[in-house]
Sequence to fold (58 residues):
Amino acid sequence: MITKRKEILAVYEQGPEAVVTLVTTLYDIIAEQQKIIELQAARITELEERVEKLESQL
Fold:
């Protein structure tokens, strides 16, 4: 945790543009991860439906 704080403070000390770049990068990472989460959620739903169908055949 301390390391992260030091890293953030180091960016802050570089000035506003460095902070904007960091925040923008973090927003991009979050957006990418959100897409992955949505794809995984859809896949989980598909697999749950498949399991239910297969279980009903037993």
